[in-house]
Amino acid sequence: MTTATGVHILVYPFPSSGHIIPLLDLTQRLLIRGLTVTILVTPANLPLLDPYLSTHPSSLKQLVLPAPGSAISCPPQKRLVSIIRAIRDLHYPMLLQWFQSQSSPPMTIVSDFFLGWTRHLASELGVPRIVFSPSGAFALSVGFSMCRDPQEPDDPEDMNFQVSFPKIPNSPVYPWWQIPQHVRCFRGDPDREFYMSNILDNAASWGFLFNSFVELERVYFDHLKRELGHDRVFAVGPVLPPDNSNLEESASRGGVSSVPCHEVMTWLDARPDHSVVYVCFGSRVVLTSRQMDVLTSALESSGVQFLLCVRGPDEKFASDDHGVIPCGYEARVEGRGFVIKGWAPQVAVLRHRAVGTFLTHCGWNSTLEGIAAGVVMLTWPMGADQYTNAKLLVDQLGVAIRAGEGTQNIPESTVLARLLAISVEGSRPERSRANELSDVALSAVNAGSSVKELDEFVKLLTD
Ligand code: AWU
């Protein structure tokens, strides 16, 4: 057990699985480097701290602040900004008071990129604020650019208006419908100033910690450093449970598996190497009826072995269209398909030798986990930064095959079935590239570039 160095920092995740999971993994790495950490969570996320509190009883402390009311009354495109604003209004005064009540308060705030307002809190307290980005440098470059040089069609309903970013390497271009909903709606909307100020507060903060690795996004890290005017940008990922972590640890990462992990592993153990397609769309996506019908039909007719994880409808937003597993489906695919309704032990599944393909929405954590596992990915981005992540995987890295795009490009089930079948072929060019990139990712976090960058970051904090 490393003794704490006395350097005390506040770690403040945005209370959503895809944001809190990687920041907890990063916190583990900060703790083993001797830092003392207070981590701020809302009550619902407190159980996620258990594994870390038990292994770092003296250097990890928890600060539990209430969660704001739900954004149920907001239209979907305004929910994110409504939550960000509610968290700020509730937590800012509480945090200020907490800091002032501490005999040895944190000397630094590390907070999620959706908490840009913490830059003002940090400034009021006279401490630096570091941005934690659970998304990659490519996606953040696009996000910054959207705020600094906003583009919009004359008619906001013109979904095929092309948005281009010539200053960003590889000059990505997007149809208007791929721009995140919460950004599209802001043209002329009062929420726009708030969302943009959050992004610009990140740009004005002391530095960045990215869940990414230099070898994956070098051109984008270089681009960001030029745009920010400094090089306090540290690529420290992929932050994952160590390769040698016990199954229990990776199986409970982010939540309890809806099916006992040993049952999932036993099912996979009975299948040949790289023969199984794992399908999961992250912690937030709920498939529409059409998407679910196409997906289940393609999996059934493709003939592949598959492990399908789908989320049930979010009772808060039950009114939204959501697809369900067809009646009798599980019986029909018995022996070839395994369906998990709820939460899968994703990292443990991806690490299993039987899994050869990952059909993913390209959330950044899933993207990194697929890269680290060396599997072929089929991309079906649904929103947020996922279209950018899919461009990186398919067009730049060549480790993935485009399958679908949101609800705008839902593939024919026969086309998806064929993609599923070819994706598990051993000779796929994407597979050899995926294996090479996996080696690079794992060496980055095993004494490579990401370890050096995190050591450099900690040295700057503790000098
Ligand atoms: P992931 O980033 O893959 O997806 P979301 O949950 O959608 O998170 C941002 O987080 C992304 O860049 C955004 O695009 C947005 C969001 N998991 C699991 O273990 N079991 C499950 O059944 C489902 C998920 C884990 C998975 C991953 C995380 C999901 C940063 O997508 O292993 O670590 O939950 O994050």
TrEMBL record:
Transferase recorded as keyword: yes
Entry keywords, A to Z: Glycosyltransferase, Transferase
Molecular function as annotated in GO: UDP-glucosyltransferase activity
InterPro entries referenced in this protein's UniProt entry, alphabetically: UDP_glucos_trans
Family indicated by similarity: Belongs to the UDP-glycosyltransferase family.
Protein name listed in UniProt: UDP-glycosyltransferase 89B1
